[in-house]
Design a protein that fits this description.
This protein is an alpha/beta fold. 43% of the residues lie in helices and 15% in strands. It has 2 domains: 28-167 and 370-433, Periplasmic binding protein-like II (D-Maltodextrin-Binding Protein, domain 2, 3-Layer(aba) Sandwich); 175-367 and 444-494, D-Maltodextrin-Binding Protein, domain 2 (3-Layer(aba) Sandwich). The strands form 5 sheets. Strands 3, 4, 5, 8, 16, 17 and 18 form a 7-stranded mixed beta sheet that branches. The chain has a 4-stranded mixed beta sheet with strand order 10-12-9-13.
Length: 497
């Protein structure tokens, strides 16, 4: 612990060289550092050349905002315990900020109510850049810097007057993954559902096969379903559009003038979602499946779903409880059985045609909207150097392995991803290959969610409407619907603001 603290202190002291080279200095983000409202007397410490000056503040408490899952699964307890022990001689103590994980730093920070360090998705952190609510960080001096791929760093970059600044430090990669129950596979799956003989069930390799299996499972027992997912979720549903050429903003998600949800053959992705909805029930229209999926996967009602890696432990705990209650297993045996049967894997491949009933289709990769969760440092903190030391500690190799162990996340660090293997390595490689499409890191991304949700809700509802009342009866109508959504988003950004 003391060796880590010493290394962290050395890294903090080295940051002054970066500031002299232009990463901070008299200006932040190309403008004067924000006034410290609600924190009297702190301007000299947090503004101008006082930021990240290599002088660790002593006897300070820094409030850290973590996500709820990390707190519930006790990872955050381990992190702050280890950090506080390592920095005990400096009198630096990290504590739980005890705030809602979706706080609004822009409104709370100026009055002294925000955290010192916050963990959020890249799109959330980057919306605070314009108002100078988070500091640009001299990340080249952090121990993790050369272990994280360029694509992940770019999620936190902003350009001002020709200079590039980085305002967050990547922790883990997020994107949709397929979860399924191995013990719910048909007994004959190895002979009937493994055509290529590779030992992997066909229904988790191809959306066509998963659609067929879902229809069969429900037909055999109306209380059982195959793939189940709330389709109104723009984050997960948009990936089907991306797979066929759609995109959010042009110029690699930096140009909000160009909205491309209808680009390429994106309507095929919308059609795929309609077909999947036909194998579900009306709960796919709203958030019902999102809220009940843990229990429904555990009791066997659902075979598979799509969500992010960081909730793996929530599925695992629910399945363990089910095995204890239903089969009378001990806690230890139930957990071992849950770990054996709960599988998280990459998303199945899509048919190039968009037709889930096609036999022997040509397959393409499924793209997924993704994000990079990471740490940022509030511009309103009284202890910026201590905050930086915390971020350096929290993104260390050891802490990334511990975070993976307790939360199932995919580390952004290449060395940690390689060590944990499996899903971490898959997600890391998918990010590098472009199959994980990162959420735009510009403020305009906030305008995509409501119009997108409305469209996907309508799309799901269409499956349950009478034929003569359907809004999207064919690909042409779906294309027009996506054009309308794109225009609605454009209007929200440029006309209605």
């Amino acid at each position: 612990m003391k060796r880590k603290a010493a290394a962290g202190m050395a890294a903090v002291m080295a940051l002054s060289a970066c500031l002299a080279a232009g990463c901070g200095g008299e200006k932040q983000n190309g403008t004067e550092a924000p006034q410290q409202q609600g924190q009297q007397g702190q301007q000299s410490q947090t503004g101008g050349s006082g930021v990240f000056n290599g002088e660790l503040e002593h006897d300070v408490v820094i409030q850290v905002l973590e996500n709820d899952t990390a707190i519930e699964q006790k990872y955050f307890d381990e992190l702050i315990r280890a950090f506080n022990e390592a920095y005990r001689d400096y009198g630096i103590t990290a504590v739980d900020a005890n705030m809602d994980q979706y706080l609004d730093l822009a409104n709370d920070g100026p009055y002294g109510f925000g955290p010192d360090v916050l963990y959020q998705a890249n799109d959330v952190i980057m919306k605070y850049v314009e108002g100078k609510h988070v500091y640009p960080i001299p990340v080249e001096q952090l121990e993790c810097y050369d272990k994280i791929p360029e694509a992940a760093w770019k999620a936190y970059e902003t350009e001002v007057d020709g200079e590039v600044y980085t305002c967050g430090v990547p922790v883990n990669i997020q994107a949709g993954m397929l979860y399924y129950r191995k013990d719910l596979l048909p007994e004959n799956w190895e002979t009937e559902w493994d055509d290529d003989g590779n030992g992997v069930p066909d229904m988790v390799e191809s959306w066509n096969e998963l659609y067929e299996f879902s229809m069969e499972r429900h037909a055999e027992d109306p209380s059982k379903y195959g793939y189940m997912k709330s389709l109104n979720d723009m984050y997960f549903s948009s990936g089907f559009l991306f797979s066929y050429g759609g995109y959010i903003f042009g110029d690699n998600n930096t140009n909000p003038e160009d909205i491309g949800l209808a680009a390429g053959e994106a309507e095929k992705g919308a059609w795929v979602l309609e077909q999947l909805a036909s194998a579900m029930n009306e709960e796919c229209i709203d958030d019902t499946i999102t809220t009940n999926v843990y229990s429904k996967m555990a009791d066997g009602s659902y075979f598979a779903t799509m969500t992010t890696p960081d909730v793996y432990t929530l599925f695992l705990d629910e399945l363990k409880r089910a095995y204890v209650a239903e089969e009378g297993l001990s806690e230890e045996d139930a957990m071992a059985k849950a770990e054996e049967n709960l599988v998280m894997t990459e998303l199945p491949k899509l048919p190039e045609s968009g037709d889930l009933t096609e036999i022997n289709p040509s397959l393409i990769d499924t793209k997924a909207m993704g994000g990079v969760n990471g740490y940022a440092i509030s511009a309103y903190t009284k202890a910026p150097n201590a905050c930086l030391a915390f971020v350096d500690f929290a993104t260390s190799y050891e802490m990334m392995l511990k975070r993976n162990e307790l939360l199932g996340i995919a580390p952004a660090r290449e060395d940690a991803a390689a060590e944990t293997g499996g899903i971490s390595e898959i997600l890391y490689n998918n990010l590098e290959a472009g199959n994980v499409v990162l959420m735009p890191s510009i403020t305009e991304v906030g305008q995509i969610w409501t119009p997108g949700q409305t469209f996907f809700t309508d799309l799901a509802m269409d499956v349950f409407r009478p034929e003569n009342e359907k809004k999207y009866p064919d690909l042409e109508a779906l294309h027009q619907g996506l054009e309308d959504v794109s225009q609605e988003i454009h209007d929200a950004i440029f006309t209605l603001q």
